[in-house]
Structure formats: structure tokens, C-alpha cells
Specification:
The chain is of the alpha+beta class and about 60 residues long. It has one domain. Helices cover about 45% and strands about 15% of the residues. The chain has a two-stranded parallel sheet.
Length: about 60
């Protein structure tokens, strides 16, 4: 079981992306979770970006 230590509110914007990257640089990605509040009104491309960038960052 992985215990999450860091949570980034991940909107899919450049600010939250940069914060997530910085957290990984400082603490690593093994205990990082990205949290996305889905309004179900988002552009389809945002969902693609969220998945691809989360994999690239190494977060869950």
C-alpha cells in the first residue's frame, strides 16, 4: 500500500502542472497524487492532457 504524502490540485493548467513538476523535483513522485475536480464540462483535450502529463510527471 502506498501512503500519499503530497497532493497537488491538478486543474490541467500551466500553474498546477508547474507545481506538480516542482514537487517531483523536490520530493520524488512515488508518494504524489494529482487531484482533479471534474466538472464534467471540460474540453475533451483537457482529459487527454491530464492523462499524458500525469504519466510524464510520474504521478497517480
Amino acid at each position: 500500500m502506498v501512503h500519499i504524502q503530497h497532493v497537488v490540485m491538478y486543474s490541467g493548467g500551466i500553474g498546477s502542472w508547474a507545481v506538480a513538476k516542482r514537487v517531483v523535483q523536490q520530493f520524488g513522485s512515488d508518494r504524489l497524487a494529482l487531484l482533479f475536480a471534474d466538472t464534467r464540462m471540460e474540453d475533451e483535450d483537457l482529459y487527454r492532457f491530464l492523462e499524458e502529463s500525469a504519466q510524464e510527471i510520474g504521478a497517480v
